[in-house]
Amino acid sequence: MPETAGAGRRFRLLMAALFLGLLLLLANRAMAQEGAETVRLDGRALFSVSSSDTLGAEERARRVEQRLGVLVRALETVPKAAVEASGDQRVIVVAGVRITTVSPIDAEDSLTDIDTLAARWANAIEMGLQDAVDRRQGFGGSFFADTLAALQTVLSRAWNSVVSVVPRLLAAALVMGTTLLIASGVNRVLVVLFKRRIADKTLENLIRQLSYYSLILLGVLVAADALGFSPGALVTGLGLTGLVLGFALKDILSNFVSGLLILALRPFEIGDQIVVGPTEGSVERIELRATQIRTYDGRVALVPNAEVFTSRIVNNTADPIRRGNVLLQVGYNTDFDTLVERLRGSVASVQGVLDDRPVTVRIDELAADAITMNIGFWTDSLRSDYKQTTSDVRRHIASTMEDMGLPLPEPDLWRVAPAHLEEWKIALSSRQEPLHPTSGAEKSDDMKGKSRK
Length: 453
What we know:
Elements lengths: L1 H30 L4 E6 L2 E7 L6 H18 L7 E5 L2 E6 L2 E6 L1 H6 L4 H23 L4 H57 L3 H26 L4 H10 L1 H7 L1 H16 L7 E4 L2 E8 L3 E6 L4 E5 H6 L2 E3 L5 E10 L5 H13 L11 E7 L4 E10 L2 H21 L10 E2 L5 H10 L10 H8 L2 E2 L1
Antiparallel strand pairs: 1-2, 3-4, 4-5, 6-7, 6-10, 7-8, 8-9, 11-13, 12-13, 14-15
């Protein structure tokens, strides 16, 4: 019951955060005037202009500001601003200088008619010019007024940028935080569903990662829209810079695509024991960047997916059973029929050797001094079971040979040395017979110091 209440509380918090993010996004869009730029004189806002067919809003505002700045320095008294009609547009003229044009799109964006907007702009221009001229005729003159105007312009633009950008940043951060919470929640839900329905860890890993990163990508697009970037323009921009990004992120993209192919084609699964180049161990995770392999000595190796996908992979556990082989050398005087029968029974009795697969005993090589026999058996493919079973098989083979009285393999090279070496030295130095004569092979071979294979 407490777990259910906690889950419900977290879900409500999540929905509240999402709802608040949407409200901030809508409020930000409602307050912001997209495609509009403020015209300033000495740092004071006069009016806002929209983009025209030939100029953007920012370029258009800077041109109006430049004309007003030149006019301020040339005027001692400010004449009345006149509004002239030019087709469906209105032109504002001050002292014979054409300051700006009021277009129907400006009136439409300002939610008024063009004549009312033109009169409003003309009044704002006239009052702004009068204030600017008065400041330059007052304390400090033009130098002080121009310096103060430049400072006011910089501060006002910075403040407007903060007012415009900070709400967008907060909305984008809230969107991304909400997206992360949703992606984590979906990830946990998928874990529970797969645990109850499907036991395929590799398929679970593929679906979880695809869903997680898809939600993250969706959140990035929404956050970009909250910042004022159109998703279509963002995708177009990424497409235009795709070549540069391709070269810069070649290895990262290669690992990412290789990870998707590994998860889709599934040459191995989570839990398989594989060999990739010099790395051998058990697969623990298959990420989109690298494959995590735990080696048999307990260390964790992260192999890049591009290397895994292009390398030769040996999957030791692709099949649940595995064949093992043990080589044995015996002499030519061995009773082979009895030995083969005893070996088959002894190896088949080893714990871990599969009963449904026969034990094979074959002759691999007829050497000059011994016969090489190959004893094959089947066991579990896991490395721990395979190694232990192979060790037990070798031990049973040694016990069988001992029970049959067969000698164990001996070194090929023997060195024959005389017994009582010191007495031989004394005898040879005094040319006397040794005190304890040797017998058999020691009589001649020991004297000559021969060796045989």
